[in-house]
Amino acid sequence: MSTAKVRPLKAGPGPADKAEWQLRLYVAGTTAKSAAALANLKRVCETHLAGRYSIEVVDLLVNPKLAAGDQILAVPTLVRKFPEPIRKIIGDLSNEDRVLVGLDLQPLR
C-alpha cells in the first residue's frame, strides 16, 4: 500500500453541514488490521457521509516521514483533517459508535 486516494467524492453546493469530509488513514503495510480498518471506515462513510467524503490511505512502510506531520504514534490511525478541528482515532475502527463519536457524527451517549 502506498499513499493513495480512495473514493474521492465531491460535496455539492449547500449548507455547511454538507461540506466534504477529508479523512486520512495511516496504516503499516497490507496487514489484516489495516485492511479491516479501511473496510470499516468505508462502511461508516458510506452509511453516514455518502457523497461527502474522501479517504487518503498513507502506508507508513512506504512513506514513514508522513507520520510526523500528524504526529502518528500507532497504526492504524484515522485522522479527520476537515472539518476542523482535527480528530484522531486509533485502531481498526470496528466499534462504529466509537468512530461516530470520534468523528463528531453523534454525541457521546
From TrEMBL:
Domain of life, per lineage: Bacteria
CDD domains: KaiB_like
Pfam families linked to this entry: KaiB
GO biological process: rhythmic process
Domain KaiB: 24-105
Entry protein name: Circadian clock protein KaiB
Top-level taxonomy: Bacteria, Pseudomonadati, Pseudomonadota, Betaproteobacteria, Burkholderiales
